[in-house]
Each structure stands twice: as C-alpha cells, then as structure tokens.
Design goal:
about 120 residues; mainly alpha; transmembrane helix; CARD; disulfide bond
Length: about 120
C-alpha cells in the first residue's frame, strides 16, 4: 500500500467512507465546497452542485464524488484526502489506508523521511 497512488488508497478507503454514515451531510458539503472553492480546477461549480444535490442520497453522492475524483487522477484524490483531513480529522486518522501506513512505518522505523514520503 505504501507505493500505491492516492487513487488506489481512495479505492481501498471507499467502503469505509461510504458505510455506516461515517460522513454526515455537513462534512461532505464542506469537502465539496473546499475542493470547489480552493481548487476549482479539481471540482468545477457544475460538478460541485451535482455532488451537493439533496435529491440523491448522501451515500450515492459520496460514492459518485470518489469515483469522479479517481477518474480525474492522483492529484484530485490527494486533494480529497487533504479536504477530509481538514474537515474530519478524526475520521481521516481512522482510514484503513492510514492505519496500514502507520503500522508499516512503525514496523520499518524508516525515520522521518519515510513518514514524510507517505503523508500528503
């Protein structure tokens, strides 16, 4: 997992993020708005409105957002993780991919360089 892209990590974390209402409407909106306002090249106004549409279920919108970002590429997925960390740090720290990375780092004791290379 350490050598995988952010898109692969997001694929690994998708079920965790979309199950059991881990992310509520307000947090998902904050993530979408951050991606749209801070990084409009990552999420356009039209795309942001689509993923904020209350007619679709939160699960569907979040799943669609994640799939959309994965299609756009690694930088888009990385910015999703950054927005998640800012808006839901506790959940971000509980991500399966984060737990695997933390475990690998503690086992390998790769020093600060290894840690920095694995964290956005």
């Amino acid at each position: 997992l350490t050598d995988q892209s952010y898109c692969h990590r997001l694929q690994h974390d998708m079920y965790f993020l979309t199950s059991n209402s881990r992310l509520n409407e307000q947090v998902v909106d904050k993530i979408i708005l951050q991606l749209n306002r801070v990084y409009p090249q990552i999420l356009s106004n039209a795309e942001a409105e689509k993923f904020r549409n209350p007619k679709a279920s939160l699960h569907t919108r979040l799943s669609d957002l994640i799939k959309h970002l994965q299609k756009k590429g690694d930088r888009h997925c990385q910015e999703f993780y950054r927005a998640l960390q800012i808006n839901a740090e506790e959940l971000y720290n509980d991500l399966p991919s984060r737990k695997i990375l933390s475990k690998l780092i503690s086992q390998n004791s790769g020093g600060p360089e290894a840690w920095l290379s694995l964290n956005p």
